[in-house]
From TrEMBL:
InterPro entries recorded: AAA+_ATPase, ABC_transporter-like_ATP-bd, ABC_transporter-like_CS, ABC_transporter_ATP-binding, P-loop_NTPase
Stored Gene3D superfamilies: P-loop containing nucleotide triphosphate hydrolases
This protein's UniProt keywords: ATP-binding, Nucleotide-binding, Transport
Identification of the protein by name: ABC transporter ATP-binding protein
The keyword Transport is assigned to this record: yes
All residue ranges annotated as the ABC transporter domain in the record: 4-234
Family: Belongs to the ABC transporter superfamily.
Pfam families named among the record's database cross-references: ABC_tran
The organism's place on the tree of life at top rank: Archaea
Molecular function via GO: ATP binding; ATP hydrolysis activity
Amino acid sequence: MNAVLAENLVKSFGDVRAVDNVSLTIKEGEIFGFLGPNGAGKTTTIRMITGVLIPDFGDVKIFGTDIHKDPITSKLNMGIIPENGTVYADLTALQNVLLTAKFYGMKKNEREMRANEVLENLGLSERKNSLVRSFSKGMRQRVAIAAAIVHSPKLLILDEPTTGLDVYSRRLVIDTVREMNSKASTILLTTHNIEEANALCSKVAVINKGKIAAVESPEKLKKTFDTSGYVEVSFDRNVSEEVFSYQGIEKAEKWGDKWRIYSDDPDRTVKFLSALAEREKLKFVGISTSNPSLEEAFVKLTEED
């Protein structure tokens, strides 16, 4: 079954068409990444998928239920962490999570047990009775996540969940995403962090200027734009660009204390560098071959015409 089926979504604000005929299919059990530069239409699309905004045109179904015709059923299947957290500063962490659990119709004993469980998993047990107003941004985000997952939603939607977080909080967020997915939750993740999407997502969609530019697995997207390989090398002493003159090497560029040697045959380039080091009595400090990156694919898909 499809967890999310969004078809031909259109949304304009005045003369600006923020989302232009966007369609997304997210299969049950996926971790689906939604990438795009600022102003590309990510958050507007998410708001239509979650029922916060009504599209000018198009439909959204959550596990087969039309979100606009039956919003209660659709939203009971969701846990949502918006770009700006929705926790109440004048409540404690525990009160925030218990309140959300009550909204989702959980029974008292169940919601108390589950609220304490998720707060412990997110490293907040010792502060669960403290007012959220005293929390750091990272701690507030963890409370928002606890509230979003307390009812074990079938679909967890996270809009830029790790932006501005410290390393510890970011790691806890990522671990929670993986844990929820292992327990059968489908994840829809919007992020600016390309490395994060590459590590987490089984499929990504790239949106640019309100339109979908690509939908594919990270590895396939990388290979699409893997136009030029290189070998990165550093020696124990400086060398000039001229030493890299060799048939098959397209160019050599200085990168800090390293050289990037561009070639369509990395294997032959590595063998050449080994012979060069032997001849010039150089020692390798480091050597590595390039792999295509999701960041490069993202830049290609969203660069200005």
